[in-house]
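Support request from a user on the community tier.

User writes: "When I paste my C-alpha cells into the form, the page sometimes reloads and wipes my input. The last time it worked, I copied everything first. Here is what I submitted, just in case something in the input itself triggers the reload:"
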C-alpha cells in the first residue's frame, strides 16, 4: 500500500504533497478579483507558505504574529504555490484572543 508522506516543515513541502505545519502569520491580503479570497502568508522558520481562503475577506482571530496550525496539499494555482482552503487551528499564543476555527 502506498504511503502519502506528510511534511511538518515548510522547507520540506513538495508540490502535491500534504503538509501539516505550525507557523506564524507574517502577512495577510484580501483580494476581490477574480474571486473574493484572503491570502495569508505563514512562516515556520524554515520558509514561507501561502494559504488562500476563498470566499473570505477576513477570518476571526487571524492577525499578523498569530500562530496557526495549517494542513493541506501544496498546489500550483495562478502561478503560485499555495494551500487552497487549508484546515487550520488557532494556537493560543497570547497574540490574539482564543477562538474556534472551521
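"...and here is what came back when it finally went through:"
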Amino acid at each position: 500500500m502506498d504511503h502519502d508522506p506528510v511534511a511538518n516543515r515548510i522547507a520540506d513541502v513538495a508540490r502535491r504533497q500534504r503538509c501539516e505545519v505550525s507557523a506564524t502569520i507574517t502577512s495577510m491580503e484580501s483580494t476581490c478579483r477574480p474571486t473574493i479570497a484572503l491570502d495569508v502568508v505563514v512562516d515556520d522558520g524554515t520558509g514561507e507558505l501561502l494559504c488562500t481562503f476563498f470566499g473570505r475577506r477576513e477570518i476571526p482571530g487571524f492577525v499578523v504574529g498569530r500562530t496557526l496550525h495549517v494542513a493541506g496539499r501544496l498546489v500550483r494555482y495562478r502561478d503560485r504555490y499555495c494551500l487552497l482552503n487549508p484546515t487550520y487551528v488557532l494556537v493560543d499564543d497570547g497574540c490574539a484572543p482564543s477562538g474556534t476555527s472551521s
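Agent notes: The reload is a front-end session timeout and is unrelated to the input. The beta strands are 6-7, 18-31, 37-43, 48-54, 67-77, 80-84, 87-90. The radius of gyration is 13 Å. Escalated to web team.
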